[in-house]
Input
Amino acid sequence: MNGFFEKAAQAVFLILIFETAWLGSGTRAYFFMPMFICAFASLAFAYFALNKTAKADLLKFPILLTGAGFAALGIIQYLNAKGTVVYAENFSYVADENFIQYLPTSIRDAFSNGNSIFASAKIFAAAMAATSAYFLFRNKRFRKTAMVFLAANIALAALYAIMQKRAGIKPMYGVFYSDSDIYGTFFLSNACGAFLCLGMALWLALSARFAKNGNTALCVLSAMPAALCFASAIYSESYGAAVCAGLLAASILPIWIFKRWGKTAGFAATASAALALSACAYAAMPHIPIDLKCKMEESAASRWQFYKTTLGGIGENPVYGVGGGSFGRTIGMATIKSQSGKNGSYKLVAHAHSDILNYLAEYGLLGVLLVMPTLFFFAKQARRNFKNFDSGSWIAISGLAISVLHSSIDQHLSIPSTMIAFAIIAVWGIGYTEGNECAGL
Output
């Protein structure tokens, strides 16, 4: 690698990690754009640092191809919009536009309001971060530095979230106000809880790798910020985050047994843990306070209604979807039309409360095809590195799997900070192991 460009790429990548933890989760355009710029700059510097062969590998890197595909799709959706949001005094409406029916389309809105370009830019930013990570992590020293830096920033964000809530400070940093339930550097407490669970998984994975290398002191020290992330996730009062943090903690013992005594013992331990957790949950049901039980039942009922509405939308637009960032407007209009005889106000949704369903609704089968190169890449890497996966790898993979599971019933993997952190941890946990320093394409 070219020394200057490699150092520049590494420096910008570390800035991106810092922004991921502290720039308001990237959900607002003015928070997201610095993340996008750093992801792009890091990738550009990494490209110029590589030799000719490696440059060709970068340009055909599957994750980057997925991101570029979504970026192009978002632009097409915006240019071929079937409607434009018009804002008037105290109300807004969607004005019809002429569009080509056999091309992807969307509802055109401002970038700051989350249009198709903004939605695809989030995916592209995560893809660029993952691509940069993959090529920069070939430097073992920087790989360790970057992952510890990411883990440290998430732990500090966890501490800040606790302090902010304890102090009763509603606006983020005392400046950025929102009607939503702000927790730490996130505008949604449950989204912050999901982000902290990723941090917990990363710290536990680092702790396991330190233990493997015989560094007991660093192993114990790494477990402490993992506990901090766990406590902060619980303190967010997100039921989903609490469950995910508990599942992640419960996964440690089966992973240890699996690595120590083999597959059969590991699977037996996993099954036993699952049965024990299920039994505990069943036994605890009668003792759950009435108000908490009502909240849980209301949440489940509302989500089921969201899913039914979303599935109907997917069925109407199975190939191209309704367009990136257009779910809320499209489903809202469909809801109003289906209840045209209703008097009074309507209860509308802006998100399916399931990232999987929301992405299917917005991008359809075309979106699935665009994701396939990334899925095949990680499947190939997992197959190649399987024998070299240590406890740290399995803990990281468990954290990623739990994050996906959590996002299947909520909206965490559509938040830029979580997407970028998820992408970096995935590259580190699956693509690189202690026994295989640099997995090829």
Notes: DSSP finds 15 helices and three strands in the chain. Residues 435-441 have pLDDT under 50 and may be disordered. The longest helix spans residues 355-385. The beta strands are 83-88, 91-96, 107-108.
